[in-house]
Please model this.
Amino acid sequence: MPSRKPPQKPDPAARLLAWYDVHRRVLPWRAPKGKKADPYRVWLSEIMLQQTTVQAVAAYYRKFLARWPTVQDLAAAPEDEVLAAWAGLGYYARARNLHAAAKMVTGGMQGVFPDTAEGLRALPGVGAYTAGAIAAIAHDERQAAMDANAERVIARLFAVETPMPKAKAELHRLAMALVPARAGDFAQALMDLGSAICTPKRPACPNCPLADDCRARKRGIQERLPVKAPRMARPLKRGAAFVVTDRQGAVLLVKRPDKGLLAAMLEPPLGPWGAEFPAPAAARKQAPFAAAWKKRGGIVRHGFTHFELEIEVYAATVSRRPKTVGEWVARERLSAVALPTVMRKIVAHALDEGGPLFQTSSARRR
Model:
């Protein structure tokens, strides 16, 4: 009798897609199975998910979509409203880029998003990863969408020990070799696998559809990968903030410069940031005007990407609004203005409040 060949095992991509068809996450921006993804929704979610977790993004995404259901709606909105709706999500350049890109799509692109990664790169705020993710998910272009989850899966699958971020190009090349016709599902499958199974610590390898192919697992080094570069110590900056209220409880806020850190966002008046806190007498000279400034106990701490910040808060109440640059915002409206997380912390500290209005999340990606 002729010998029978053992049945061929499906390739890794096919096994991953079979797993995804059963275990795919239900996410507010993800098209239902069998339905075509909406490029606007994919783009909006991918911009929000840059360096931010699914859990942190979900509520913001729903709020944006309810308020601006189409790219035309978003383009027509004033930038200040977009920044205010974004407040608390962090990395505020994303919101400005989001608004600028919406205007570009509704203007020169006649309301139609580019359908290739190369075309998407023309939009503000869309880099190589984001362009690949949108093109794959919305248009099934053969692109490897490499978020942190996907990078972890690929690093372990091929036992890539090159430290990050140097390994990024290699991981992208290895992932590209696996991308099947269902490029969008494959991209989302890698993300879901990294989120649910191939986790940073204690990955559930026995439940992984790629376990038999995983070189890191065979060597017992899966929890060590991907290798992260040593973290650089971030410098510490210190300063003073001045929170003033009028007799009705309205808070004085001023607008930051249109470029740079937290551009065009609102803040209470601030003094300069340096290596040390200013002495109380020096701090009061930094105040926007003379008042009975009282230093609150404790300090406000906040971490930016490249430095740590510590702020001492001075508070005052005035019976008459002085003539000064800025706007007086009623306390109940603070949640509706473009007040970034660090400034909410400062205002909350001055007002001795810590309710939901001032509680925000700054967790990282997916």
